[in-house]
Structure formats: C-alpha cells, structure tokens
Amino acid sequence: MNKIKRRLVHELAAKEIQKYIREQGFGEGDKLPSLEELASVLGVGRSSLREALRSLQAMDMIEMINGKGVYVKDTHSYRISAKVKVDDVKRSMLQVSEVRRALEGMAVELAAARATDQMIKEMEYYISEIKRYSENQMDTSELDIKFHQTIYKASDNPVLESVILSMWKMFEVFWSNPFGDNQLFEATLPIHFTLAEAIKNKDGQKARAEFNKLMDAVEATIHEAE
C-alpha cells in the first residue's frame, strides 16, 4: 500500500506543478522556484517532488539543469495521455513493452531517415555522457531518457513522439518497481551505441534490428522476474 501511495503523490504533484505554472503565468524559459520552495508550496517530500519533475521533464514541459534549477520548456502543446487499469503487473508490463516495441521501433526507423545533423550530435553527446557516467558508476537514468527523447524528436513526427512519451512514462513507472534491475541497463549499454550508430548511418533496417535486441533483453528480464 505504501508503494501505491507514493506513486499517487508523484502523479498529483506533477498535476499541481502544471497548475502552478499556469496560474503564475510562467512561460517558456522562465525559472521555477527552488525545490525547497516548490516542496513547501505543494506540501510534498523532496523525493516525490523529484519524481514529479522527472515526469514533467520526460513530457518536455520542463527542463532540469544541474546547478542552475528548473525551467519551463513547453506549456502549450496538446499532449496525449494513457490510463490503464493494472490487475497483473507482469502481464501489463509485457503488453506495454509490445506497444513500445511497435511505436518506438517506428520512431527509430524514421529517425534513421530524418535525423538532422543537430539531432545526431545530441544523440552522440548523450551516448558519450552515458558511457562516462557508467564508467564512473554514476546514475545514467536521466541521460538514457534524454537519449531516447532525442530519437523521438529526430523522427520528425510530433504525434508519434507524444504517444511514445505517454507510454514511456507508464513503462518507467512500472519498471522502477517492482522490476527495477540496474544490471539490465549495463547489459544493454552496448546496444545503445550500435543503435545510435545505425541512425547516424541512416540505416533504418539496422536501427530497427538493434532496437529489437534491446526490447528482447527487456522482455526477457520481465519474464524472469518473480
């Protein structure tokens, strides 16, 4: 029950932050109050606040910059959201994974065909940072999200991007608990490099194949979970 409660606090906090941004008239590029002030205004703990901010960042509504603060990024786009009743977590995880394989696989192929030089540079930057963080045993989760978001943007299909982000947040919430496994990311790290290389080389077939390898590893871990 405590885990469910924590998840609800995170979701409510994200909604309240969006409401606060609208009511205060914040626009793109505006800096939000400090985490301490936001936590006080919302009446939530720092951990729940950080989860809420991560959720909004994944939807491209805010941007968290280390050492600088939280900035409003996009408040006007129409966004698609998904709500699914979960009776069997493992079964639901596999179903979400199937949807992600289909949608993100399409984005990967489109990115290979449409990625601009700037998008390629961003992917290479996040890949190099993921490698550096991993070698120094630092948390790479934020960089991994940014890497995948860059692929979605590179697909040059805002509708597809919005749908994937909606499903990605659902996947991330499930994956963090109870199936979280740091070893999975370490095992799939080389695939991230080959995926980025395939997109850079505009090889859509290779990019799709590499992404399928990543999803095979994810689904295998779900099957093996108790």
UniProtKB/TrEMBL annotation:
Higher taxonomy: Bacteria, Bacillati, Bacillota, Bacilli, Bacillales
Protein name: GntR family transcriptional regulator
GO MF term list: DNA binding; DNA-binding transcription factor activity
Keywords: DNA-binding, Transcription, Transcription regulation
Presence of keyword Transcription: yes
Domain spans labelled HTH gntR-type: 7-75
Keyword Isomerase: no
Xref: SUPFAM superfamilies: GntR ligand-binding domain-like, Winged helix' DNA-binding domain
InterPro entries reported for this sequence: GntR_C (IPR011711), TF_FadR/GntR_C (IPR008920), Tscrpt_reg_HTH_GntR (IPR000524), WH-like_DNA-bd_sf (IPR036388), WH_DNA-bd_sf (IPR036390)
